[in-house]
Specification:
It is built from 18 helices and three strands. The protein has helices at about 10-15, 20-30, 35-55, 65-75, 85-95, 110-125, 130-145, 160-170, 175-195, 225-230, 240-255, 255-260, 290-305, 325-340, 350-365, 370-375, 380-385, 390-395, and strands spanning about 270, 275-280, 285-290. A hairpin with a 4-residue loop joins β1 (about 270) and β2 (about 275-280). The longest helix is centred in the first third of the chain and has 20 residues, at about 35-55.
């Protein structure tokens, strides 16, 4: 405590408060999570004030609930931004310490149904975590669209409700997202019928959406643009060195954003110079680790990566210091790098680096099977889209336009 507060009166007040015995363990928890001194000081004040509020309300700490924290945040006049998160961390710590019992989370009926659907996808269908998350989100969105805040009665769902929801999503979403939404809905309605929630097969009511695989031309970056994006990282800073290593993985190996996100320290074999990647469907694949990529990762690990419990290679900078939640964080790093480099691109995501790698390989004489092997495509038809950017071969196949310029 003396490290964060110089005034002995303040330290004595905090230690003698309702949450006094927990102040020192909480300090250790916040330090382990990577919080700075000023941030820890602010959190300790919030926790002390909440403890005093519990005492005034005559609520014993052993009987305090997260709903009490919500009530405090909603009605207390001195609450500041971030206090809600601090109190959630407090309850999580007290529960983990077994000082207060685990609070039974009473979920709405819709949440229970969706959780059951997710368990079915995991246990019975063996789908990957990312696929389950998307299916779960699609089912939850449909129930919210159909019932809103009203009581949920699954037996009242009609075909027109399904069609209306799909039409709305088709106009709102882009690319393949509407197609994957309809796939998730069909699986959801089959699950509801199997479990007896509905007596009809509403999966047949889900309309089919037109999706023509390969109708788009893969758009990547030029070699010069990739160099500019990599050069935009300030490698004199920890964030810059981390982002440089991430961008190199995308550019040299063509990894997906989610694959970079889930890399662990033990996935790199420094002796053999290989890296193990968790691909789609939970498949693992070993790839050669280029020297410049390995050097960038090693520099980040040695100089900048904090010593924390998680085994993820790349970590968030703001506390709590953990691995990235999903691939969207990697795509955000790409977006900022493109902006710094002044590169205009039709896509702001990480996937364009895969297109860039495939296009460069094709230009240098690689065959489609070789490209598919590097990109770890499961089906050859996935790689066929790159025939559209093989302009040298396409020119040989192109016929002269009748009456054209001679």
């Amino acid at each position: 405590m003396e490290r964060f507060f110089k005034d002995p009166v303040t330290i004595k007040r905090f230690r003698s408060g309702p949450l006094g015995p927990w102040m020192q363990p909480l300090v250790g928890e916040f330090i382990q999570q990577g919080y700075k001194v000023q941030s820890i000081r602010k959190r300790l004040r919030t926790i002390h004030q909440f403890g005093c509020w519990l005492r005034r309300c005559r609520i014993p700490l052993t009987k305090a609930k997260p709903s009490d924290a919500n009530r405090y945040v909603a009605h207390h006049g001195k609450v500041k931004e971030g206090d809600g998160q601090t109190l959630r961390q407090l309850f999580k710590f007290l529960t983990k310490s077994q000082f207060i019992p685990i609070q039974p989370l009473i979920k709405p009926y819709a949440e229970k149904v969706v959780d059951g659907f997710a368990d079915h996808l995991r246990l019975d269908c063996g789908l990957s975590h990312s696929t389950i998350s998307y299916h779960r989100l699609a089912a939850k969105k449909f129930l919210l669209h159909r019932f809103g805040d009203n009581q949920i009665a699954l037996s009242t769902i009609e075909a027109r409700d399904v069609i209306g929801f799909v039409n709305r999503e088709a106009t709102r979403l882009h690319s393949m997202q509407p197609k994957t939404t309809t796939t998730a809905l069909r699986a959801f309605f089959r699950y509801l019928q199997q479990r007896g929630f509905i007596d009809r097969n509403l999966a047949t009511a889900v309309p089919s959406l037109a999706h023509r695989p390969g109708s788009n031309i893969p758009r990547g970056l030029t070699r010069d643009q990739v160099k500019r994006v990599l050069a935009s990282c300030n490698r004199k800073t920890g964030i810059g060195r981390r982002d440089y290593a991430i961008l190199l993985l995308l550019a040299r190996l063509g990894l997906r954003a989610g694959e970079v996100c889930t890399l662990h320290l033990e996935d790199i074999d420094w002796v053999s110079g290989t890296i193990s990647v968790r691909g789609k469907g939970g498949k693992h694949c070993k790839l050669p680790l280029p020297q410049d990529v390995g050097q960038a990762i090693a520099t980040y690990i040695r100089r900048d990566r904090p010593s924390v419990a998680t085994r993820r290679i790349f970590l968030r900078v703001p506390a709590p210091v953990t691995g990235f939640q999903c691939g969207a964080s990697i795509s955000l790093i790409v977006k900022y790098a493109l902006a710094r480099a002044g590169v205009q691109s039709s896509s702001m995501g990480a996937h364009q680096f895969r297109h860039t790698l495939a296009t460069e390989m094709l230009r240098n004489g690689a065959s489609l099977p070789e490209i598919g092997e590097v990109l770890r495509h499961q089906h050859p038809k996935t790689t066929f889209i790159y025939t559209k950017v093989d302009f040298t071969t396409l020119r040989r196949l192109a016929r002269r336009w009748p009456g054209g310029v001679k």
